[in-house]
Amino acid sequence: MQPAEPFILRPALALRVGVTGARTLEDSAIAPLRKKIAAVLMQIKAQVEALNASPYAPAPARLRLLSPLAEGADRLVAEEALALGYELNVPLPFAQAEYELDFPETVPAFRALLAQAGPRVLELDGAHGAHETRSYEAVGRLVVQNCDLMIAIWDGGIAKGRGGTAEIVDYAARREQPIWWLNADGHGAAHWIENALDLRLPQGEAATRLQTYLTRTLLPAPEPRESPGGIIGVLMHRLQHRHPPPKPLAAFLAETPRPARGLWTVHQQLMRWAAGAHHEAPANPPAPPPGDVWPYWQQFFVPADRLAVDYGNRYRSAYVLVFALAALALSCAVFSVGVHAVAQLIAPFEFAFLAAIFVIVGLNQSRRWHARLIAYRLLAELFRKQQALALLGWSLPAAAALHISGDTTPPSPPIPRDAMVGWYFNAALRAAPLPQGRLAGPALAAAYRAIKASLLSSQTAYHAHRRRDAEAAAHRFSQLGAQFFLFTVAVVLLEFGLLVAQSFRPALNTPPMDATALALGFIAILLPVLSAAFVGIRSYAELELLADQSAQMQRVLARAERRLHGLSLDAPLASQDLGAEILLLAEDMLLDIKGWAQLFRVKIVEAG
Q1: 380 and 405 share a domain?
Q2: Domain count, the chain
Q3: Of 165, 189, 218, which residue is a domain's last?
Q4: Is 525:338 a contact under the CB 8 Å cutoff?
Q5: Which of 41, 54, 272, 456 has the fewest CB atoms found within 10 Å of its own CB?
Q6: Model pTM score
């Protein structure tokens, strides 16, 4: 019997190298440059292959070179990479036939290299004439966005126009994309550039810095084990486990679905009742465009999204149950004060309610439902945005996953599970395929439809639904609080009336408690406690704030839709205009989800 496929995919170990550089190289520079290029590519290959172990998929490491195969540096690096077994990916600024017009004398050499790329060729929708420099800029930026290290063969001079080597180097440095800079004359040692500041003062010891960078990038950061939160979490964990909890990444890779059943549907049922909403059929998923890009990202998005939903149901149901049980326990405690017979009758129920709170809080803390909800929602949203951008050959910066996961700036230590988010997303990004074929006409239209359905239509519907439900539920809870208060006043008045009526009866030394008065007393205690529970749930769920966030996102999405509606997909470089708009929208949406995460990090279910 074959083992079932794991729910969480392990990404393949991959590293992407890009190239930018001079088209014209002196004959005397070619031999020393070729030697230096081969040396750095060999260093990368040796170190990557040495690091190929768990937690990556059990497969050979993938080394890829992205090169537009222009004359000069592009082809020189491509030749050395192919000789070392690198996979060649070729983005072109124009259709192939139009691109070849730029180097008529070396077309055979270009085609020989292009053939070794196989189907891994992407033709952008650029054009000569007025759009020529922007077309070269677009393909250069695409290389930067889809690589982990740039090799730049450059004279160090200032930019002479859009799309030139200096402009692409500057773009990479501003994205904090590491650059291995070789002087175009072939002389001198390599320089290491990791950010915009290094452009003014390039760093030496490039080989050592490269080794450090590869280790830091490819291997997960040392992970502390997640200790269960709070005293109750520690006690529950010791009751359930003899061994220490696994590290966050190992725990994530071993995850399986946790569907909501029984008690863990309480939050869903309560909010559905409070909002007056009926079950809505899920929207049909967008038709996937042709190619490998969409399904690649879908296989990462679906498990992360499923885990976020499952742990969200558990976490939210936990705090609803805690508020409800606390209200019942408090009612029992108050009602039994001073009445020994009632205290003996109610004490077991009060103990049962408190014990149930202990168990629920302990489960939430020991199993990290709250932390997992936040981590997997962040991860799913990163995958959702990248899936849309990847159709256009665009990419979120690798640093985006680290920034969205929270403040990891020293001296603040990273949250263990959030550190897993950044590493896992970037590992999947490095192994992701690029789109292939001609990114224009029907292919661009299909990508546009999929992006609009996944990022605009579905998210607009989601935020409209969340805003409506949050506003309705907040209004219902507010009404309940007011109604419970009025009912309490009425019960107290009725109870006072009964006491006045009893005062006209003959006085007894120990008058027995009337059953009606007993019931009214219990109701007078229970109603304000339940009112407080509803107010607590409303406050803990931050319903008004969620409604405001959704209203803001509806405005953002509406503006984005208006901008996209004004694009002409038939215009030259329409894919770049579309990519710029989608990146802007993705950044706005990631800021929104980061704000949600920062808000709910402090909403930990506790017994107090």
Answers
A1: yes
A2: 2
A3: 218
A4: no
A5: 54
A6: 0.89
